[in-house]
Amino acid sequence: MGTGTKGTSEPKKHEIDDMVAHYTRNGRKWCLEKSGKMSLFDTIEDLVFEFPKLRELSSIRLTLQRRASQREEYKAAPRKLPTEDNIIVKFEECYYCGGSGTAGFMPCDNCGGKGTVKLTGRKR
User: pLDDT per residue over 49-85, tens digit each?
Assistant: First the structure.
C-alpha cells in the first residue's frame, strides 16, 4: 500500500492470460505488457479495442462503464432560447452623451447620434 502521496504507490495491475495492464499517472497512459513487449495507449477504450480479452476483467469493465456514464452526464443539453414574453426592451437616454447625440463635437459613438440607447433584459 502507498503512503498516500501521488505517484509513490505502485499502480494496480490487471492481469489476464499473459497480459498485464496498468495505468500510469505519470504521462496518463495505459500500459499493456504482453510477452515482454510494452504497448502504450491514450485511453482505456483504445486499450480494450486493441485487446478485447481485457473486457472479461470486472475492474476494467467497471472503469469503462464509469467513463461512459460520465460522458452521458456531460452531454450538453440544447440551450433554451428566451421567449418573447420574458424579454424587456427599454429606450433610455444615452449615458455617454447625456441624450444630446454629440460627444466632443462629433456624433456619439455609443448611441450613433440618436441620443437614446436600446436596453434589453429578461424577467425572472
Answer: 998 898 888 888 998 999 888 887 777 566 676 666 7
| CA distances for 12 relative to 15, 21, 31, 101, angstroms | 10, 9, 11, 71
Residue 69 domain-assigned (yes or no) = yes
In this structure, are 32 and 67 located in the same domain? Answer: yes
My answer on whether 63 and 108 are in the same domain is: no
**Is the Cβ–Cβ distance between 117 and 94 less than 8 Å?**
yes
User: How far is 8 from 93, CA to CA, in rounded Å?
Assistant: 65
Sign of the torsion angle spanned by Cα atoms 58, 63, 68, 73 = positive
Pair 67, 88 in one domain: no
Question: Parallel, antiparallel, or unpaired: how do β-strands 37-41 and 87-93 relate?
Answer: unpaired
